[in-house]
Amino acid sequence: MEHEIRALTARLVAQRWLPRKDPMVRRALIDETFRAELESRLAGVGLHLLDNPYAAHVAVGLTPEALEPTFGAGREYQSSNMGLTRDEIALLVVLWALIILPKRERQVTRQNLANEGQEELFASEQPVAHGAEVSAGVSEASLIADFGPRLGGKTKVRNFMLGKLARLGFIERRNNMILEGPLLDVALDYRLMADRIIHGTLAEVLAEAGHPLPEEDAFAKAEAEDLAQDDIADDEGAF
Fold first, then answer.
1. Taking the CA of residue 88 as centre, how many other CA atoms within 13 Å lie in the half-sphere pointing to its CB?
2. What angle in degrees, to the nearest 10, is found between the helix axes of 32-43 and 2-15?
3. How far apart are CA 95 and CA 92, in angstroms?
4. Alpha helices in the chain (DSSP H)
5. pLDDT tens for residues 41-87?
């Protein structure tokens, strides 16, 4: 086990994220002893595993105790520890709301994109899905038309802001579509953000732009599902 732990720790630190389907990641998710040793190794350098049962990837992040010593010297730390400006953070939150919130609703209701809007027999017996089959993209042209004027204009959003979010791993850009990146569903705290977005000003901004958020009760279900992570793991087998 020593070799596997060392290798997985090194890969997480070097690559920042790994897919849940990776054999060693799967072991860390279902083997309590292996997971505890991995967390111990990461904690030794101020890191911890970022894991969301609904996300297709896992990642590493700084522990709360390591945040200030690591980033406290920089003025930008008050808003972002990844060098993001206020406009870029605003765009990131908008994309999170447009991509992750509808995705979570599909996962909670056990619906794939192909079945969206259709009744599904025995839907409650299906495992919680994650990954491409439930994560829809956002049209780049539509996003810029709706939010570009609020964020500095078309050129700034398309050529600079979206490019930066893609390089950091939050999004992927393919065929003029903006898709979920490896970090979008694990680096941003769902439990903290969902309620603030649904009940906050952003919900009104999105609705005005023609992007109404999913129904509120879906998110209450999602929070209950998150608390039952062990049950989800059993339903999914070995992930």
1. 22
2. 50
3. 5
4. 2-15, 23-30, 32-43, 64-71, 86-108, 140-147, 154-156, 162-167, 190-199, 201-208, 216-227, 229-235
5. 999 999 999 998 889 999 999 898 888 888 776 655 555 567 788 89
Cα distances from 108 to residues 29, 43, 136, 224, in angstroms, run 20, 32, 15, 10
For the chain, what are the domain ranges? Answer: 2-71, 80-235
pLDDT band of residue 212 (cuts 50, 70, 90) is confident
Q: Which CATH number fits domain 80-235: 1.10.10, 1.25.40, 2.40.50, 3.30.420?
A: 1.10.10
pTM recorded for the entire structure: 0.74
Handedness of CA 226, 162, 61, 19 (dihedral sign): positive
Spell out the residues 6+ positions from residue 41 whose beta carbon is closer than 8 angstroms to its own. 5, 6, 9
